Every structure is written in C-alpha cells, then in structure tokens.
Amino acid sequence: MKLAFSTLGVPGLPVSEVLRLAHTHGYHGVELRAHPEEAVHPGIDAAQRADTVAEFKAAGVEVLGLAGYARVAAPGDDEPVLAEIRALLDLARDLGAPYIRVFPGASPEQSAAEADATAARRLGTAARYAADAGVRILLETHDSHRTGADAIRVLGPVGHRNVGSLWDVMHTWLGGEQPSETYAALSPFLGYVQVKDIASPDDTTPLPLGAGVLPLAECVEVLSRHGWDGWLCWEYEKRWYEGAAPLPELLSAGREHLARLLNESA
Fold this sequence. Notes:
Elements: E1 2-6, H1 15-25, E2 29-33, H2 46-59, E3 62-71, H3 78-95, E4 99-103, H4 112-133, E5 136-140, H5 148-158, E6 163-168, H6 169-174, H7 179-186, E7 190-195, H8 216-225, E8 231-234, H9 251-265
Parallel strand pairs: 1-2, 1-8, 2-3, 3-4, 4-5, 5-6, 6-7, 7-8
Helix pairs in contact: 1-2, 3-4, 4-5, 5-7, 8-9
C-alpha cells in the first residue's frame, strides 16, 4: 500500500511546502483539499494548474485525489450539485488526479429512501462525465451515510465503474461497523482509505496515529488479508481543530506507525 496525507492537516500551506513535507517524511502522495482557502481549488486558471502539475512531477509525489465538498444526497435542485462535481472532475483531469471526494450530506428532513435515490441519481449522471475525464468519484463514508452499509445503498444502484467509495475509518467506527464488515460492503467499490486517530467518540480532536482508539491495526489487517494494495491517506483534521498539534512534526512517526502495521499484517 502507498501512503499519503491530506492538506486538511496543513491548512493554507503553499504547494511547494506541502511537497517538501511529503518528500522529507516519505509519503508517496497528497490528497488536496479543494477549497478556496487552499492553493489548489476549481477556481485556479490553466497556468496555475500546469504549474501545480510541474511541481508535483519535480517532487516525485502523486496527487492522490481532490477532497471536494459536493453533497450528493442533499435536498434541492440537481444542477448546482452536478456543476460542483463537474468542476472538481475538470480540475482532477488537469492535475492527473485519479479521484475526487464527495460527501453524502442528506438532510434530517429527508427519508433514507429519498436521500439514497437523490444521491444515486446525481452520481449516475455525473459518472458519464467522470468517465470522459478519466477520474473516479468517491462517496466518502461520512455524515448521513457514515457506514459501508449506508454507502452501498447508493453505490449499488449507481453501478458504474467511475463511482466508488472512500472509506473514512473514523466514521464507520462511530457508526458501529467492524472493519471486516466495512470492507465486505465497500470492497467492490473501494478507491482508497482515510486513516486517522481520536481519543473517544465524544472527543474527535485529531491525535497522532496509534495514540487513540480507532481500530487502525484491524483495518490494515483486513485490507492486507484480502490483498488490497491501494492508498492509505492520513486525514488529520487540523483545519477544524486549531488546538491540535501541528501535523508536520507528526508526519514521520505517522508514516512509521503505518509501516509497522503493514509489516505486522503481511
């Protein structure tokens, strides 16, 4: 498996500094938070996109994916959501990124069936555009659809190779799923896996990998046992927890922890 980290952990950091961290601490790729607060987002022009590609190439680091914020199950008209997804797909195509991330984002006022149908309809429509762009749309286990069992209610009906899943290990754990159950649900759709650690269900402040309660060893063991060889991406949510320790000083130890889990599960 290859290792990456998300720029959610280094909010506002220039691309050059992000790449220096990846190279220095031994990460193969970077997940880019595609938000206007960051250097890379759908609003940048062609020259900026080309410069970003050149920087990644020179550093020998891959763009794993773009973490967008489109909410595919949310109530309302389809077109604004589809336009947001198309903009992310265009950026991913230009950067050579294989994936974009979307959220479920259903409202409590929606029934589960209505939310599932809305998400499946939008993802099915966007899948054709994604196929033309050569990019996969990944529905993250998050918010209204936090478990693998929730996600496959959407992904199954879509049934398109350019629509898959992003396994966020915190949300499936908070949803009461065991790693083996999540993998069984998501394996036909799995794009990559976001790892992290927290102190408890009531305190989700990000911690160094291995310092909290999330079942990272079990997740890695399940993936290894089934011969899965994709990406593990550390999503350290520094942007939302300003009091959390700075990510740069944790990156080497985090890589070593993941490498140890991979060796133990081999």
